[in-house]
Amino acid sequence: MNLFLLPDFCDGPDLVALRCNLRDRVIRAKVVGMITIRKSGERGHADHGWLDTYHTFSFAGYRDPRWMGFRSLRVINDDRVAPSKGFGMHPHRDMEIITYVLSGALEHKDSMGNGRIIRPGEFQYMSAGSGVLHSEFNPSDSETVHLLQIWILPEQGGLDPRYREKKMSDSASGQLHLITSRDGRDDSISIRQDAELWLAKLAAGHVAEHPLAPGRHAWVHVAEGVVEINGHRLSEGDAAVFRDEAVVKLGGVGPAQVLLFDLA
After folding, report:
1. What is the CATH number of domain 3-263?
2. What is the structure's pLDDT at 30?
3. Full-model pTM
4. Among residues 22, 25, 196, 246, which one has the fewest Cβ atoms lying within 10 Å of its Cβ?
């Protein structure tokens, strides 16, 4: 999002040191076994009038050293942008940026020549690499756009910027779909980090499971609705953090969407 809303330590030449400092820094708000539950209301919040945003991790005016990120996952911003408003052209570098539109529409333009309106159920990926300019704008004059913007630290800085999209609006409910991976398998978007992003759409009674390999960790974010996650009922904006667990179990309570990050 807007560079001027960005803390001075989260995008720049100190990438390697930042990555080292981020590992394993998560507050245990509520811990059951090796699962940490963080409720939506514990996130940072700012209402700028045209932008109503919740920050899962420290960002802009929200600073909490206990919530600097998780593994390579640096940002999950839950944004609502008012009609005909948005972020003007601004720079990024050395960050893997993923946007998922939940409702409304988001118009994207960048210095690589890409320009498109992203709609509900669509993922957009931009690897900022050595540097890119882009803008994000709500093209509607009547409807708010609701989106999640995710930042993941790349394994290496200074690479060429790149861009991809993935449409999931018609994806099947009741199962997990691979959105990003390092190797790009199963038609997922190849990103510059050992970080998998999975999407689950659930209805009441649906069950989906994701095994975690030894040494892997998971951050599970409820994007919409209410779900059961390993026996814990969580609502929109809530999250569950997994360490040294064998499996993530998702159970549908009603219509819901969940983002699952499988991280090294």
Report:
1. 2.60.120.10
2. 60
3. 0.88
4. 246
